[in-house]
Amino acid sequence: MNMIRAELHSHTWYSFGTKIRVEGLHSPEQMIRRASLLGLHALAITDHDTFRGAIEAERFGKKYGVTIIKGEEITTDEDKHVIGLGLSEFIPRGKPFWDVLDAIRAQGGIAIAPHPFDINNKGVGKLALACDAIEVFNAINKDRLSNRKARKLALKYKKPMVAGSDAHCIEMLGYAKTKIFAEPDVDSILKAIKKGMTEIDATYVPVKVLKEWSLKRINYSYIAIMNYIYDNYSQPKKILYEKLLKLTKKSPGKVDYLFSTLAYAGILGATFYSIFKTPFRE
Q1: Dist. CA 150–CA 135, nearest whole Å
Q2: Is the pLDDT of residue 90 over 70?
Q3: Does the pLDDT of residue 280 top 60, yes or no?
Q4: Which CATH class is domain 3-206?
Q5: What does the pLDDT look like over 37-78, one tens digit per residue?
Q6: 36: nearest Cα among 52, 71, 72, 60
Q7: Nearest to 205 by CA among 6, 5, 10
Q8: Residue 165 CB partners (closer than 8 Å, separation 6+)
Q9: What single string gives the DSSP state of each residue in 126-143?
Q10: Alpha-carbon distance 241 to 20, whole Å?
Q11: Partners of 113 in beta bridges
Q12: Closest C-alpha among 232, 144, 159 to residue 194
């Protein structure tokens, strides 16, 4: 039996956000090329509520020697995330959780519960037990406790475990790998995940990478963010956010020390916040 090193959670430039419009920074081909250079055998493209990246990626798998797993990170009607792997068709956002699971399995895919206890409250919590596997390590989780809780849940109920870098750019790929004991084809990989034939090889994405990704997102979405500030914030919050937004135009430069400080402070604050919130998440 082969051992496959897989990245099971990644986003291309087809993934978009709300307040900050741009999320993914690179094309499917760029992500696949990077995965190949990192020695990954398989890459799942799991863009937010779109199948375009997965379809496009399928054309480049053989070129770079990477098995492409077509997937999607689907937003439920309660604004929670479920990943479908091994899909053949797009699943629209806004369906109830149970309907999302049915839609994934009707295509012969498997359902993964990503970051089930993240402090942004985008995970499905203990409903993760209804999925085929649980993402017990997400490499960009702001805190460090939500991953532990996900792993504890999976171990308690003997659920299959996977990891995901949640990569939104090439620099984030490969930090949270899942070792899968399977043949290098999609069907074998999915069956092995369902059987729990996996090992986790993961670490967190460095703060420097997260900072640089955030600054690029902001600059690419600058006008949309400024409009959001004007439309939704009142004084003095509006002035503060406007000034911070304008500072991003001075990066790279000395201002990066400020952004690095803010990044570390954000992770520290998230960790302290999760100490009080995560134990009570359902």
Answers
A1: 7
A2: yes
A3: no
A4: alpha beta
A5: 999 999 999 999 999 999 999 999 999 999 999 999 999 999
A6: 60
A7: 10
A8: 7, 9, 10, 138, 139, 140, 172, 173, 174, 175, 176, 177, 205
A9: GGGGGSSEEEEEETT-SS
A10: 13
A11: 134
A12: 159
Write out the residue limits of the CATH 3.20.20.140 domain(s) in the chain: 3-206
Residues in the chain: 282
Which neighbouring-strand residues pair with 73?
Answer: 48, 83
Dihedral angle at the C-alpha atoms of 37, 39, 42, 47, nearest 10 degrees?
-40
Structure tokens at 187: 């069907």
Residue 134's nearest CA partner among 274, 8, 272 is 8
| Structure tokens given for 43 | 């890459």
HSE (side-chain half, CA atoms, 13 Å) at 157: 18
pLDDT category at 112 given cuts 50, 70, 90 is very high
The token duo for 186 is 């999609």
Structural contact between residues 107 and 64, judged by C-beta atoms closer than 8 angstroms: no
CA angle 177, 32, 122 (to 5 degrees): 55
For residue 240, the one-letter residue type is L
Amino acid at 169: C
Euclidean distance between the first and final Cα of the chain, in Å? 37
